[in-house]
Amino acid sequence: MIRVVAGLVERDGYFLAGQRRRNDTHPYKWEFPGGKIEVGETPRDALRRELREELGIEAEIGAEVIRYEYSYRGKPPIELIFIRVGAYTGEPQSHAFEQIRWVTAAQMTRMDFLDGDTDFVRRLAAGKFH
User: Fold this and answer.
1) For every residue of the chain, which 3-state class applies, written as one string?
2) pTM value?
């Protein structure tokens, strides 16, 4: 199973979302910054590395919010692990996305997120995670 970590980078009630590039799988879909956990990495280490690569920030990794399995049609299942980012230094830059955007949880429900993220987005907007 592929393990994927997603960071909840929050600032003043807004979350950071990234839009996939046109040549990526699932082009132009929105997602949380993060990525695959490499062999020998913990989810927290992977998220710290991914945020540095994708956004150019140094992050303090917070608590895990939820993890669950998701299967895209014709692909092996993935385990999605959502983790809060407690604080960070640097201003996020889009190194790996078409664009990045600060949005509220409610605004996310109207965006075209990856299918694996949509249940989490709905639950976040409903206030299920504090």
Assistant:
1) CEEEEEEEEEECCEEEEEECCCCCCCCCCEECCEEECCCCCCHHHHHHHHHHHHHCCEEEEEEEEEEEEECCCCCCCEEEEEEEEEEEECCCCCCCCCEEEEECHHHHCCCCECHHHHHHHHHHHCCCCC
2) 0.95
